[in-house]
Amino acid sequence: MLIVSAHLCMAINLYKECRGASDKECQLINRVVINRMHETNQDACSIIFEKSQFSWTKKSPKKLQFNNYSDMIAYYKLNDSVQLMRAFDNVDKSQDDSNNLKTSANMTHYHDRSIAPKWAHHMQVAYRTKNFVFFNA
Known about the structure:
two-stranded antiparallel sheet, three-stranded antiparallel beta sheet, alpha+beta
């Protein structure tokens, strides 16, 4: 039996959230998850699958136990092995304190620049990238 770990939840999230994004943007997204973990004392899987936090989780609800790795890949539709390896790499890099992601210290929210959610109007912008806007707590 395969039990999905926090590290794997973060990689799945980056796989889903970072299509077409730079490695730095992926690492910043993962820092948002890490910052929320520190703020709430919850694990990564709880943060990622919290209701209305990440749009992809509406189509792929939380499931953390599988018969095997292949079943997990199929359930979460992780069909691109290169992108999945990139996601794992960015999870590791986002947790490395020497990676110069200093702008991410207090960031707890972000959104794709193609949308303008109502919640964003009440938050302080911390950092902008080509694809995303990040906000401080």
